[in-house]
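Worked example

This section walks through a single chain of length 197. The input is the sequence exactly as stored; nothing has been trimmed or padded.
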Amino acid sequence: MAETIEGETFRNEDWYGDEVTDRTYQGCTFLHVDLTEATTRGAVFQDCTFGNVKFNASRHHDSAFLRCTFTRCNFFEAEFTGCKLVGSTFAQSALRPLRVVGGDWSFVGLPGADLRGVTVNSVRMREVDLTSANCAEAALVDVDLSGAQLHGVNLVRCDLRGSDLTGLDPSTAQLGGAIIDPAQAVVIAQALGLVIR
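Given that input, the structure is written out below as tokens.
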């Protein structure tokens, strides 16, 4: 049976290099916890609050951070593989360089986030909030961005190939030098009101 921890507060703890496996945290608070180079596998964090937590160089595999709040956290060189972060929000957090492969980040709040140079590949990000986010020179490849909030997003020199851009209003985004495929070019042209014959 997986261990479940509910409603606890972890403050000023050193979890450097720890491995969290098949454990569930429900409604817990993490404040000034050092998770540098830590690893999670099959762990679940639900309705948890993270404040000033260091996720530097941490690795997360098939774990879930559901409806969590991350404030002033550091994700320098963190990696998420096959993870679910549905409904989580990030505020005033350092998110680069970050690597995300697979998983579900739908309904995640990243308004105004600095995502320059991050790598996101084959991730479901339906209705994600990227309002005014800076994704310059990032790679958002094969990402499901259907219903995403993209007003004011910076996608300059961003690799967008294979991603769903149906929710993108080109007139409200910065797109200079962005890399797209032919099918996406048609979607963007239609969004601009152009007629393709």
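What to look for: The radius of gyration is 18 Å.
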